[in-house]
Each structure stands twice: as C-alpha cells, then as structure tokens.
C-alpha cells in the first residue's frame, strides 16, 4: 500500500522538524476551553467569534491544476461568513499556502501556519508526499490535520496519527471500483498501467492488483514516471506495445493530460481508457480535445457542475450562485471548485457536530461521523467513520465521458460492503 515509503518520507521530515516538533498544548500559544467537559483542551486559533484554518496546496509546479480547489473552499466559507454568521457564530479565516508539490516546502508552510499564524487546524494538505512529510509534526503538536486532499489508504489504517484523517475515497477503494467493473464487463481483460512512482500511484496500483486477484483480469504491463519527468511519451510507447485492451491511467493532472493525448495519437492501440479520479477533471481533458476522449471511464463521488441532471438541484443552484458572488473570476463548471465546496461543507458539518469547540473536539468529531449527508456529494454517498474506520467516504459511481461531459452509469458502489474493510 506504499506505507513503508510514506513512513520513510515522514522520518526524513521529522529531522527537519525536530527543533520545534516537541511541543504540545502548552507551548503553541493556545488557550484552554472555558469550562465543563472541554476544560483543559486546546483553543488555539478559535474564539467565540472566529476560527482560523490553514490549507497547503500546489498553487505552482507540476500539480498546479489543484489550485482550483481552495477557490471553491474559500467561496463556501465567504458565503457562510456573510450569510450564516459563520460556523456556530464563528467567522472562518482560511489561509492558503503554496508548496509547489514539494514536501520540504510543505513542512515549511505547515510550521508557519501552526507556529506563526496560530491556526486552529490544517484543513487540507494536498498530495500524498506533502501529507507524509507533515503528519508526524502535526500529530506531535496535537494539531488537527483534517480531510487531507489525498486518497492514500494509510491515513485511515494508521493508528499512530489520530490527528490526521482523509476525506475523499482512498485509492484502494477507487481501485476496487475499477476492478469490479472489469471483472463484470471485461472478465478476461489485459490491463496496461501507467502510474506515478510514489505512494499515490503505488497505493492505487496495489489496490487494483489485490482486487483482481483470482479473476481473469490480468495486469500485463506496467510503466512508472517521476513527477519531475517532462513527458511520459516513452512510457506510453512501451505500454502500447503490450497490446493490452485496457489502459489504467493512474496520474496527476499534468501527466493525465499527456497520457490521454498520447493514447489519442496512437491509432494502432485502442484500449478502454480508465483514468483515475484525480486526473478526470475537464481541465485535464479539454486540452486533449473532447472528441479525443470519448468513452474514457472514471469514477466519482460528488456532483459534476456540468451534468444537466443537477440543473434543478438545490445545492448546485446554491453553489453556482455563491461562486458567482464570492469567486467571480472562477468558473463554476470546473469540478475542482465543486470539490472544494463539498469538502468545506463537510468541515462545516464536522465542526457543528464537535462536542467541544477545541482541537480535541474536532479530532474526535471527524472520527465519529454517522452517515452525515453532504449535499454536494452524490445521492447515496455519505460521511461515515468510527473507531475502526478512518475513511469518511468509500462509495463511488462509475462515469463515462460522452460529448462534452461525464455521464454517470451504474449504481453507487459502497466498497465497504462489497469488499470489506481496509487493513494496513
């Protein structure tokens, strides 16, 4: 599942953090809750009227397409602040930092947000490498690192980092959805895989192999790439030579677009193309040309703003109106904006459910979500966690690109029920 590599990355990061990572409640400038069951808990970054959050994203660099996510988050919080008096009467201040998809920079920004900005919590650190580099620090400091924007399965299976939790479906669950689809529709499929050579790519690929074990579906070719690579054309040529009838594209946006384009150019190889969710945005497909990505398959768990079936949906209408009002320069049709809106709404629900308005209260709340409905998620997809389940979302629905948009097909697949719980 990539756990050993994540742990090695975290260990290296810990060396950088050793000088400041030993503190807990007493040395971070925080106060304590006023009374009752919350007495003695951390209230750094939160008052009766405000709450300060920090997010770390690749606003620059090879994964900069994800920079659209905080725009949706900020629009949601601006809307809540202006029209709902914040969350429980607390106005949300959301600080966004750029790490360029570089783990050492993520460490630097996490320290700045926690120690200088005195944030209540890190709400989203994007990327498996960046989260792996920072989660030892946040857990040593007892700072919530909630709803991280990465689907690595370790965030849910690891028990040593209770202050860190994911949000989106983990990569193993996503891989299970693709495996189920192929075992049903193409039971003798020969699969070629392109994957990012880090814990993100290895996690999804490993989950896929485990899910197809014992079936007629076989992986016949694998090629990896590095985030620093300028192109994945050599890998695509090698995969095409395998003559596989399915191509599993496990990439981040920049390389997802390159792989889609390479597949479109090669008229001698016409596999079923499955692209993982994190590279399935229209911003990835559009440069390739929509006519060149017809029939591509992926999976999702939140509503697509370009899907006309949501035109009369109350949450989608609210989202569009408030994006126009609070983020006038952002295109509401970009799914990453809707992702941001959905995860911000999820934080809102979790914070409202917290028994104490403290760091400990938020930590406990996100690990005790009982079928919480978030209106931007697909019908049938809810937030569910518990003592033995650190994965808020494990349901997805398949989708196929047709015309100029994705079309959902089949039913929502709850991987908890169909495959059982994940274990490390």
UniProtKB/TrEMBL annotation:
Keywords: Signal
Top-rank lineage group of the source organism: Bacteria
InterPro entries (UniProt xref): Leu-bd, Peripla_BP_I
A Pfam family that the UniProt record links to this protein: Peripla_BP_6
PROSITE patterns membership: PROKAR_LIPOPROTEIN (PS51257)
UniProt keyword Signal, yes or no: yes
Residue intervals of the Leucine-binding protein domain: 50-402
Entry annotated with the keyword DNA damage: no
PANTHER family per UniProt: BLR6548 PROTEIN
Family, per entry: Belongs to the leucine-binding protein family.
Protein name: Amino acid/amide ABC transporter substrate-binding protein, HAAT family
Organism: Thermomonospora echinospora
